[in-house]
Amino acid sequence: LQECILSGIMSVNGKKVLHMDRNSYYGGESASITPLEDLYKRFNLPGAPPESMGRGRDWNVDLIPKFLMANGQLVKMLLYTEVTRYLDFKVIEGSFVYKGGKIYKVPSTEAEALASSLMGLFEKRRFRKFLVYVANFDENDSRTFEGVDPKKTTMRDVYKKFDLGQDVIDFTGHALALYRTDDYLDQPCQETINRIKLYSESLARYGKSPYLYPLYGLGELPQGFARLSAIYGGTYMLNKPIEEIVIENGKVVGVKSEGEVARCKQLICDPSYVSDLVTKVGQVIRVICILSHPIKNTNDANSCQIIIPQNQVNRKSDIYVCMISSAHNVAAQGKYIAIASTTVETADPEKEIKPALDLLEPIEQNSGLQRCLCFQIFISRTYDATTHFETTCDDIKDIYKRMMGSEFDFEEMKRKKNDIYGEEEQQ
């Protein structure tokens, strides 16, 4: 996905782009697999899908499960590049958090906080005060700081200021600010407050949850940016084997494929194309589960996210579950796809993911999937365990800055778009 987005953006910026992919489909690791028979083959599952699974072509199963924050960076990229005209989205129905073996709706408004069974009465009042503080916080207006220095005061001290207990800290840091570990607690609080604001602002746009998901699966996203690249003169080649990355005098000068060399000045690729240049920094386990029922205690939601904070299961990193269904044109009628993921911490990753799988019982079919994380060659990161695209967008902006020598600027994207399409229409 990162490469597809960057090839679209670089084409808009007037760069001459050739996009080659060894696969027969767009998106690489972030593709959606269809039909269901292809998913069975990919994971070497015995036999064909049973008739109870419906028609194979009704399925579009994401390999890397993620949702889009409604007010997040990827939605801005989609809007500013007008890739939204190739896509339709649905709001995810709910965001839930795990506590003491049960799941609860994540409270993110004052009204929800007061009604939530996650907290006692006095805790609710303190949490409400905290949410009001975050909503009013403006990093450019010191009058909103209330004695907090956003660049120096740690988030741990902010929680102390509002006298919030451990359970509230858990769901605030992991289900609202979307941190994967507790390392953020001893960092300056500004980023955490802005993350919670992003969650609240995203929630305010549609009401049910802060997350969006494209109909027909995430594979639609790379295809959308591929179309953008083509509109601005980019060339796409699927099913194109990469034989060699040609380097002369320490600089990349081309890519060899089927005996021919395509010349270039800069190259973007995912780690699988340059395994000798990357270092493994961790591992993620993902399990794709097919269900015939919604997840228990989610009010029969057609889609949801569940976050299991690490403290609740004695781990260092969170466990994530995202669930979508036939309502999103990714599964047969009456079927649901739930994908559990987490960062591997032990030699027994199947056991680590078990708390998530227990929430999904009974499971009709599952396939374990383990993934490694990860000179003018710009290598993207592989996908982490999170169920949102904010970290992916940070990677895209980082590659852009290293290639172009300037920060990625959403307003600049808008101006470039207007140069081609004319001034924005008057509302």
UniProtKB/TrEMBL annotation:
<dbReference type="GO" id="GO:0015031">
    <property type="term" value="P:protein transport"/>
</dbReference>
<comment type="function">
    <text>Regulates the GDP/GTP exchange reaction of most RAB proteins by inhibiting the dissociation of GDP from them, and the subsequent binding of GTP.</text>
</comment>
<keyword id="KW-0597">Phosphoprotein</keyword>
<comment type="similarity">
    <text>Belongs to the Rab GDI family.</text>
</comment>
<dbReference type="GO" id="GO:0005794">
    <property type="term" value="C:Golgi apparatus"/>
</dbReference>
<dbReference type="GO" id="GO:0005093">
    <property type="term" value="F:Rab GDP-dissociation inhibitor activity"/>
</dbReference>
<protein>
    <recommendedName>
        <fullName>Rab GDP dissociation inhibitor</fullName>
    </recommendedName>
</protein>
<keyword id="KW-0472">Membrane</keyword>
<comment type="function">
    <text>GDP-dissociation inhibitor preventing the GDP to GTP exchange of most Rab proteins. By keeping these small GTPases in their inactive GDP-bound form regulates intracellular membrane trafficking. Negatively regulates protein transport to the cilium and ciliogenesis through the inhibition of RAB8A.</text>
</comment>
<dbReference type="GO" id="GO:0007264">
    <property type="term" value="P:small GTPase-mediated signal transduction"/>
</dbReference>
<dbReference type="GO" id="GO:0005096">
    <property type="term" value="F:GTPase activator activity"/>
</dbReference>
<dbReference type="InterPro" id="IPR036188">
    <property type="entry name" value="FAD/NAD-bd_sf"/>
</dbReference>
<dbReference type="GO" id="GO:0016192">
    <property type="term" value="P:vesicle-mediated transport"/>
</dbReference>
<keyword id="KW-0333">Golgi apparatus</keyword>
<dbReference type="InterPro" id="IPR018203">
    <property type="entry name" value="GDP_dissociation_inhibitor"/>
</dbReference>
<comment type="subunit">
    <text>Interacts with RHOH. Interacts with the GDP-bound inactive forms of RAB3A, RAB3B, RAB3C, RAB5A, RAB5B, RAB5C, RAB8A, RAB8B, RAB10, RAB12, RAB35, and RAB43; binds RAB3D to a lesser extent. Interacts with DZIP1; this interaction negatively regulates the interaction of GDI2 with GDP-bound RAB8A.</text>
</comment>
<dbReference type="GO" id="GO:0016020">
    <property type="term" value="C:membrane"/>
</dbReference>
<dbReference type="Pfam" id="PF00996">
    <property type="entry name" value="GDI"/>
</dbReference>
<keyword id="KW-0007">Acetylation</keyword>
<dbReference type="InterPro" id="IPR000806">
    <property type="entry name" value="RabGDI"/>
</dbReference>
<keyword id="KW-0343">GTPase activation</keyword>
<keyword id="KW-0963">Cytoplasm</keyword>
